[in-house]
Design a protein that fits this description.
162 residues, alpha+beta, 5 helices, 49% helix
Length: 162
């Protein structure tokens, strides 16, 4: 069954108004304020097919860096479509072969591992910053300030007691 898939298009540079208009003639597009990211809805049998079709239709018209599905699939995965240079493809194939993997598996595991490392680094940084706050404030003050910041747009902490 054919369905519609929301696709985000990340560009290597901002588009000119003319480029956006020309590309929009073949595929309806929504652009962010600085025209470095676009959204499109593509009809296809699968999210992967939607990315493939958009890459074929827009690849020669736009400076596309990455295409990705906007919503996770039924397995909770966001699909990516990245066009690698020949040398990058060769390096991926070589690294995958060295580990006895297919390039797709190698790349998927590498990206997953990199995202996990990034998340761990962010958590570690947050813990360090939190320890710095706790050196100067009580846990109650930090918690009250965080609750206030999360619930308001102004991010002002409640007054502390002397």
């Amino acid at each position: 069954m054919t369905s519609h898939h929301a696709v985000e298009i990340v560009l290597t540079r901002p588009l000119t108004a003319g480029e956006l208009k020309r590309a929009g003639r073949s595929v309806p597009l929504a652009a962010n304020a600085d025209r470095t990211r676009l959204m499109a809805v593509q009809r296809a049998y699968s999210p992967g097919n939607a990315l493939h079709v958009l890459r074929r239709r827009l690849g020669s018209r736009l400076p596309i860096d990455v295409l990705s599905t906007h919503y996770p699939d039924r397995h909770g995965q966001v699909r990516l479509n990245v066009a690698f240079s020949r040398s990058a493809e060769a390096a991926i194939r070589q690294a995958a072969a060295a580990l006895g993997q297919r390039p797709k598996e190698f790349l998927g595991q590498s990206v997953t591992a990199a995202l996990a490392r990034q998340q761990q680094d962010r958590c570690r940084l947050l813990e360090i910053r939190l320890q710095g706050l706790l050196a100067h404030h009580t846990p109650e003050e930090v918690l009250a300030c965080a609750a206030t910041a999360l619930s308001s747009r102004h991010h002002r902490c409640p007054p502390t007691r002397p």
